[in-house]
Amino acid sequence: MSWQISPLANGLGQWRSAWDDLNNRLYGGHSFSDSRFVEALLRYFGKGSELLCVHRTGAKIDGLLIVYPRRAGVWSQFVPDQAQSAPALLESTDLLKDLFAALPGRAWSIELLCQDPLFAPPDLLQEVSTSRPLPHALTMNVEVKGSFDEYWKKRSKNLVKNMRRYEHRVNDEFGTAELRILTIPGEMHDAIARYGELETSGWKGQSGTAVNIENTQGQFYADILGSFAETGQATVVEYWLNEKLAASRLLVSTRDLTIILKTAYDESQAQFAPGRLLLKDYLERAFAEKKVSTVEFYTDATPDQLAWATGQRHISHVMLFRSAHEARMHDAYRAIKKLVSGIRSKARESDLKHSPGPVLEFQRHEKMSQLPSSCEALFHGGEQESFDLSADWFKLLEATVFPESSIRIYVLQRDGKVRGVLPLLSKRTMMWLRQAKSLSNFYSSLYRVLLSPDVTSDELAGYLRMILRDAPVDMLQFDAMDPAHPTFELLESAIRQAGLRPYRFFDFGNWHLPVHGRSFQTYFQGLASQVRHTIRRHEKKLFALERGRLKIVTENDGLEEAIAAWHKIYGRSWKAAEPFPKFVPELIRMCAARGWLRMGLAYYDGEPIASQIWIVSHGRAAIYKLAYDEKFAHLSAGTILTAHLLRHVLDVDKVKEVDYLIGDDDYKKDWMSHRRERWGIVAYNSRTIRGIIGMTNEISRRSIRTAWCHLNHILATFKGKAKNSCNIHGGGHAGP
């Protein structure tokens, strides 16, 4: 196992074939890692200092990476702006450990830029002692699954209404529009020239960043599209109104994935939204042709763009360090830089207090139904990530869990435009602290503040100050959040800037399974042999003499019967009665109405004996609730039902992830391969007596826990069993 380092001279040269072989093996020939794309990047945007790093294990090439020296000791992956993502051609992140020593000089950090979690080694984006993933952009895609009508029916009412209005405007003004699809190599040069004219006529032309057939960017795109068109992998889609080009999109494709590289439209015709109309017509065509399974946008998506999406995810930069010590030094540097930046921000805030600037304001609502329609895009964006960030989920909590509670839903606005939605619950704690907490409870697996992507911590802090003046509190608490999501640190920083003292706390572990395109059969063969044998043995027992049967309910047909069966099974299970009896039935009905429901039922001699409620939305299957009749525990119907539903979501729904949601139960490890954590933030208002009491309680508890952990570590070391698994910040917080 070794790395070979070679200088590059404007191309991959002898390594071109190996590069494409590894790209095909790892990522199905992803366009951004195609040698034609990479070599064009090197030709037009290379600095001349790039090095090709080649890793071999035996005779096999299993790692290829292009890097350049960014500054002393820091090597950065070669990723010009024209590549919105740059899949690292690595079979394993472990290969990178030896790269530090192989690079010239003393390398202490390697930066991997624009990493897409769908096209990266599985553990690359997980933070460990020697790596720091940094979210960069929120990209989006559209799965070409089912018919276009089915896809369009699931779009927000606001989007559908707006598109209908634009179509009417075009019909009234021009009669008809023409969509032209260009794929022939000889057409690409002129298509890029026309595209450049569109960009040059708009704001990009004024700022000097527009594509032009005469400049480097224009030549790059003409080169790329021409070479990809030779193999039928390039398309230019043009939208014409009265023989005048109104919008254009540049696309490249693999056998499964189409990537939208660039988009431009005639800004003088913005009232007709030609770029959006082009997108709708193109997607309708893509659904009809079914040539690819996904259309990928690779953009930093706005709420308006997310309304089109069926999926979204974060593209991240990853900083790798030679050792944990150097990673900690970098963390300290960032902390100091952040502190200095905060001081400067406060100074600027003081200077701008009486200066004209953006107007921040909020609306407070007590019911979801009162929210303006302009909030739909934010909820839709949240829904792409998880079902419990959807508007329907919060409506469900409002109706079945918190009907008599003080719900406060804050709509955050800047200059009259919606910038965020903050669903909160106002309550008193056991110590009579006035608490505002996330609108969530033990039914919620994920929560976050719903924000436009460009909201800063300064802006969010401004909203929080206004909210605290509107409803004075002693304590803020946000539960079940993803610490890797950009809004986590953004919220924490904003709370601090608003004058409260935030503390993180561990909430629960979350086991999940990235599918990576596997069929159920492939997945099943990868399970532990004991699990496979158990399933097969109990299947024989359950289905012997045709006494057992399984059923999956997905729609309204047979729904009430399924709900009745759930109640019957749950009542005979080991579980305590539901504290909110209306919640689960209404959840089932909501999921059925949205097309999300996958409710499994196991019967034995006609009697329902086990049930599981799964929620499938936007490429993700969530295992939400399960129960079985203890009298039939010997049949292991729950285990068989899990396997049956897994087969359905992998082979029929084609999900990208299966999520076991809340908790570290041992049985989840049998089915899932990865673990992540959900954390919360609790903060205290030092301007109130009760807030100071709560903060004192929090600090005392954490100090005691830290001392106890250190004592246990010393005792374990003394006994020769040194192992410190203590999480000082975990285990909840001091609940006042």
From TrEMBL:
<feature type="domain" description="BioF2-like acetyltransferase">
    <location>
        <begin position="160"/>
        <end position="302"/>
    </location>
</feature>
<protein>
    <recommendedName>
        <fullName>BioF2-like acetyltransferase domain-containing protein</fullName>
    </recommendedName>
</protein>
<dbReference type="InterPro" id="IPR038740">
    <property type="entry name" value="BioF2-like_GNAT_dom"/>
</dbReference>
<dbReference type="InterPro" id="IPR016181">
    <property type="entry name" value="Acyl_CoA_acyltransferase"/>
</dbReference>
<feature type="domain" description="BioF2-like acetyltransferase">
    <location>
        <begin position="530"/>
        <end position="669"/>
    </location>
</feature>
<dbReference type="Pfam" id="PF13480">
    <property type="entry name" value="Acetyltransf_6"/>
</dbReference>
